[in-house]
Amino acid sequence: MKKDRIVNIIKTLLETDAFISAEDLSEQLKVSKRTIYSDLDSPVMKKVLHGAEIIKKPKQGIRLSATAKQISNIKFDIENNALESSFNKLEEDVQKFLILLLTQQAPITLETISRYLYRSMNSILHLINQTNDEIKMYHCSIEKKPNYGIWLKGTEENIQKMFRKKCVSQFALETIFPKQIVDTAYQVCSHAEILLNTKFTDYDYKKLLCKVSILIERALLGYHYNYIDHINTQIPEYYISANMKMEIEYSLQIQLTEEDKIALTCFLLKTRKTISGITTEAFNEELVDTFIRKISEKLNCPLENDVELKINLLNHLKPAIRRLRYGVPSENPLLDRIRYDYSYAYIAVMMTIDEIESIENIFFDTNELSFVCMHIVAALNRINNQRNFHVLLVNNDGLSVQTFLKSMIEKHFSELQVETCDSYTIPDQEYDIIFNSTQKKLDKNFIQISSLLDEKDLSSIRHWLFSLELDQVMSIQKNLHKYVLFFHDHTVNKFDLLKKYSNFLQETGYVTKDFYTSVIEREKYSSTSIGRAVAVPHGAKDTVLKSVIVLIELEKPILWDDLEVDTIFLTAINSKNSKEFSHFFKTIFDVVSNEQKLKHLKQAKDIDEIETLLFSKSSITNENTL
Question: Can you state the percent helix, strand and coil of the chain, rounding each to 5?
Fold first, then answer.
């Protein structure tokens, strides 16, 4: 966050009297040099310096010039978290400033803003610059003209989106809008819920209230949606929006446009519904089964028999695809957490969703991918609470001893699910292993143990579990040089990088000429950055001739949509090798999800160092000690 960066910049400057380059600061904080200079010139930075000065000299860098008293005051603020109030005050003033702009019909003067915020004229100019920096991501800007005033510029769609994100989400509706507007919004949203014969999720219901309140406020000021994508007028949401439009017009004596009605339709399409049981809107079950099977292969985890996962995906995918088809995806409030905390599952979903996209002729965006990922994570959590290996304990000492041994084995090894029998009634079915405590020689794969279950027996079981993992690791290690290409690079642009390595893969016979196009097509609809400065771009399976992963370490981070990235896994996997890559993907997911391992990966100089990191004995024996 910006406040953390500013604190870190100040701390770094306090540590030395020498000049520090902006480049060094940008590398330390993992941001661009432009961001560093923006932070240095921000109003908050000036406020927290207590009159001290930041000197900037070409070819030398940046240095703090401060008296002993100023340094003492700065350190006191840092140690006592006093900077927090400065950041909060600035953020609050930005929000109040925007609310003032958004709820006025005509341009407003600097004097009006100064009186409203109790700020000096000079600080208002800094506030305008700060606000402009924060709203440009919504394609909006603040315009000012002498003797005329200050106003917002942007399409009405973007302005209303920015209003909701920057202001309404931070305050209660009642503190921004008149009571009549809020009451009308509650009324029309509740009626829409009834007419659609559904219940909206709590989060999306609140978001719908915000959107409708903003639309009403702006319509009262004479601002209406002036452009919106074409929408299917035969869907239920369109008819319900017509009813909402009539109610708003009657309650507030205003006139909404046809574009406003289409906007209301889009609001309803984006609003997710709560569903219980199997949906009446049947989705392609065979397609969902294929998707779950492919995800299971990627994650090396059996999800095919999870009935709850299948039902949840059937319920979720139909309305999700409908939203995407009409160009109105829903926002996931947990997006960043999903990408960061569950990156292994997010990558797997991102690389498997084309099973559905190709059939439905749509692309899932980042938010919709994360919703699907949440269902996968829930299924993985259910798996983690279950036992992974099905074993048979053969014992002839009676039910009491069998029950005791079963409980002791399951106590020592949480991954084992144990069934019991005697040597005369062995079931005719497959088990991962058989533990035999009898004298009878079995014709199936078994481990001989005693009825005492002593340390030697426990060691034999540990060794068996370890050997299973070791077999997987050795299989991956054997193919590492075959399937992974490793490069250091200094490219500074995402698309140049993707073009460069897609061309390389085409020239070396790994992919077809259409691979790059499929990579870019994916990037247009959903970011492949997943947090921790990692991105996993990938192309369509049918453009891959030979499966390969290109690992690229950048000298400096580059902007990858909304995040900065310095490690890229450009992935080209075809259907033929998908299953073969499952164990390999699991190993990569483990590294990407682990801060310490990822740090070592980013420091690797060649493929041999990567092999050492992924397959060192310590990484295996940490979990399975012989």
Answer: 60, 15, 30
